Amino acid sequence: MSATAVGYLVRAVEALGVRHIFGVDGANIEDLYDAIFESSGEVTGVVAKHEFSAATMADGYARVTAGIGVVAATSGGGAMNLVAGLAESFASRVPVLALVGQPPTDQEGAGAFQDSSGKAGTIDAALLFDQVSRYCGRVESARTLPAHLARAVEAARGGGPAVLLLPKDVQRASMEAVPPFRPQPRVRVRDEIVLERVRAALRTARDTGKITVIAGDQVARDDARAQLRRLVAALDAAVGVAPDAKDVYAWDEPGFCGVAGTMGHPELLDAVRGSALCLLVGTRMPVTARAGLDEALSGTVVVGVGAQRPYLDVIHAASTDLSVELAELAAEFESSGSSAEVSRAARPESSLTVLPVPEATGPGLRYREMVETIGAVIESGTDVFADAGNTGAAVVHHLRVPRDGRFVVALGMGGMGYAFGAAIGCAFARARRTLVIAGDGAFFMHGMEVHTAIQYRLPVTFVVFNNNAHAMCVTREQLYYGDRYSFNRFQPSDPGAGVAAMFPGLPAYSPRSTAELADALRTCVETPGPSFISIDCDPDEIPPFSPFLSVPRRHS
Q1: Which of 442, 211, 522, 129 is nearest to 139 (CA)?
Q2: Vertex 395: Cα angle to 391 and 398 (nearest 5)
Q3: pLDDT digits (tens, 9 = 90+) for 67-105
Q4: What does the pLDDT average to over 180-206?
Q5: 214, 329, 455, 462: which has the fewest Cβ within 10 Å?
């Protein structure tokens, strides 16, 4: 490999244990791809169809590996297209390193094509990316690259994107005599003083009443599911999960009370109301996770453990490694004669109360029957990525997440189309069946990443709920504006037939019944490589989303 700055970066990516760099090529980042080609082959360059999706690929890769995702983009529009994807990683504290090409330094402020140096009235990329990153550094010379990279990696590991702006001449500069990048050990944050307060509160609550645990996606990122189960058993606790954490505690395990918040289950509300204490584990409890719970939470003691302080005013112990903290808490309560020895029956799946929605009378299949059919067919170990919106609400509320699989729904920014790229990043990282569930609006935005899955023969099944609309916006027009008009209904389309015509050889299906859907899914999961399913559904169906269910319908 050449002893240039980009060669140094590729070797650094290898040293971090990262095996894929996602991006879109261009004149001011092409030297990075040249360095990848000349490398030992440990790192693969993956070209996406759009920089937003490349950023979400890095995001999905990071979420399922507990490492860093890496994305690359050229200057100008390519760099601008990264912003929305990095904003999701910023809001969700996902570690991503973005390598962004820039014009040569001697052309900055002198009319360079795609100049974003901030000179002579140009856009200042450093200021722009500073708002969606934990660190942004403009690398002015190869000599400063090692220090910038070290700071960027440390910042990303702290939770969120880090950006390096790399002028083309700096990328090509020699680093012959520079020692290789050596990642520093991750700094573990542990607030022992507050942890003792949390332990004391748990001891008191266990002696006076029930405990409810609400777990977030940090449990999955820290690979702490087993430790969570141990702690729940030791405390004989009721358990709920945040909407983006359905994979951290199985639907049929003891004490499970469903999902928290806007897409949640009333059993969890009842559990919190009847508790002496609520323990938040790895969740900040944003509105989507706490809607409907505020009054109940205000009436009980609330404590938390996790990397980020919850939005609620709670006793919170900072921890960046829940696998350690939860194991220690479990050991303490197991050894103190807890109720872990009590036989704890699993909750039957059917006993969770489903949010009642108005009956839909339009065409196609219904959200619940589609999602329950998917949940009954997909196999253990399948990773599931859902897009936000009406489709996401149905998936969060109804899906039985397969065991040993990740479940991701991006609620930080809720950007449409996130799931297409993120699932591809996951499939590269884990090389196993990955499922996308998204609406047709999200598909039209970023669904052409199907081509990327085909290009690299990835085991991704794309499932599109096609209601020919931005359905959540249609629902809002109906509920809040009297259904007098709609800007959000589409000209009807047939994504299944369209994708089949575009990509001959891609297994593509358009089932019209749940039986056909189940058959199509079974074929997809048994077929190596990508596949595609489009299911027609009703744009006027109200999803299981509590804010919509409490609104009296207005009429014009």
Answers
A1: 129
A2: 130
A3: 999 999 999 999 999 999 999 999 999 999 999 999 999
A4: 93
A5: 455
